[in-house]
Amino acid sequence: RSLVHDEPGVTRDRIEEKASWWFYGKEFPLLLVDTGGVGGDRFSIEIEQQVQTALSLADAVIVLFDGPAGLTAMDEDLLRNLKQSGIHKKIPLIGVVNKIDALSHEDLVHEFHSSGLDPILDVSAEHGRGFDALRMTAAQALGFSIADARASGNELEDASETEVPSDLPEEPETRRIPHVAIVGKPNVGKSTLTNAVLGEDRMITSPIAGTTVDSVDSMAELDGRSCMLIDTAGIRRKNKTEEGVEVLSVVQTRKALERADLAILVLDGELGITEQDEKIGGLIEESGCSVILAINKWDTQEANRQFSKEQAAERIRKQMAFLRYAPIIFTSGKTSLGLDGLGELIEEILHQRSFKIPTHEFTEWVRAESEIHNPMNAKFYMSHQTSRRPPTFACHVSDPEKVHFSLKRHLVNALRERWGFMGTPVRLVFVQGSSPRPARRSTR
């Protein structure tokens, strides 16, 4: 889930992920929080603030050490600060020595017992070694009774402690919380906008392009509606993207789009639309996400009487014609401008996105619309909706090559006029078909 790279300082914001550990048939749910490394060269103050926030909310802390590096002066400073804060008197601190890749490396662990932490465990994150013991230790430190789970649960072997039993009763299906990705090029104000929506400094912000590296999930309330906000790294032009961390950041952003229901494409209200904005818009449409276009930093343009919202919207519609179906909002992350009603807009878009049109109704509608504009006289048979999210339709025709692009455009426009699908890409597929009616036999 977290971006991993040899370069130090890759993790900056808090990465949170829900997990479930299983012991003898009993579930232990928890929230794991990955934090940035303390004492680095870049964004050290901001990372320290994020770490302090994580500590203030935590019920237990894993203090992670680098086994081959030994107990360093930086580690000792961190331990000293933790003890001075008194956190060790409030919640459990678990010492974990990483990169102990084999039994022959266990001698490296002895040095860390002088840290004063108890227990001290050794693991290898790269090879998955030592995690049964770590999970059990953490669960017990948080008040989960392994003995009670063993007594009341299935008598599993020790090696199966973390496996999910196959005979558990199925949980009732619950409504999925909408996932909303905040995407755009660097420095358009994505993280500032995310913080404004959340009403807290959840994300590290700065004028430096590339401040956000990972994709960060945060639960949010918009107009009383819950959603998962995903703040993503800015996507630069391919020829300007550096190797290493930046490439991985783009991969993380693409993955965020894959799991998102809706993307808010943040555009720079000061600089206007660029070719890179159009390419990111293309990525969103390709992913099948619904989309809202957010003209951010609009507070800098409000005094400009020569450039109205209507003019700005019209310019965007011309430059990004392929996203004409996307609603446009005008926002400011700094002043929280334009955020009222955002939750209602997202809910309405996702409601229309999930429409299911009955096959008979859609077939009759397509046949009627094809009579209005059909330059190559393609004959339409059965038409039906094959999937939702995004809405996808298959039209069986006499010859797919006779479906002129203008006919397809007419059908999509008419489809939106009839059923809406605001902010959502619509897929129309034309496949070879034949009339279901048998040919009449000659009476001669």
Write the layout of secondary structure elements.
Blueprint: E1 15-23, E2 26-34, H1 44-57, E3 61-66, H2 73-85, E4 93-98, E5 120-122, H3 131-141, H4 146-152, E6 179-183, H5 190-198, E7 216-222, E8 225-231, H6 245-259, E9 262-268, H7 275-287, E10 290-296, H8 309-319, E11 328-330, H9 342-353, H10 359-370, E12 380-387, E13 392-397, H11 405-419, E14 427-432
Parallel strand pairs: 3-4, 4-5, 6-8, 6-9, 9-10, 10-11, 13-14
Antiparallel strand pairs: 1-2, 7-8, 12-13
Compact summary:
The chain is 30% helix and 20% strand. It is an alpha/beta fold and 444 residues long. Residues 155-174 have low confidence and may be disordered.
Low-confidence segments: 155-174
Task: Give the N-to-C terminal Cα separation.
Answer: 74 Å
Helix/strand order: EEHEHEEHHEHEEHEHEHEHHEEHE
Number of helices: 11
Order of strands, widest sheet: 7-8-6-9-10-11
Report the radius of gyration as a whole number of Å: 28 Å
Strand-residue proportion: 15-25%
Q: Please give the number of β-strands.
A: 14
Structural class by helix and strand composition: alpha/beta
Largest sheet: 6 strands, mixed
Fraction in helix? 25-40%
Mean pLDDT: 84
Q: Any idea what the shape is?
A: elongated
Provide a descriptive summary of the structure in words.
With 444 residues, the chain is an alpha/beta fold. It is built from eleven helices and 14 strands. The strands form four sheets. Strands 7-8-6-9-10-11 form a six-stranded mixed sheet, sandwiched between helices. A three-stranded parallel sheet has the order 3-4-5, with helices on one face. Strand 12 and strand 13 form a beta hairpin. The longest helix is centred in the middle third of the chain and has 15 residues, at 245-259. The model is unreliable at 155-174 (pLDDT under 50).
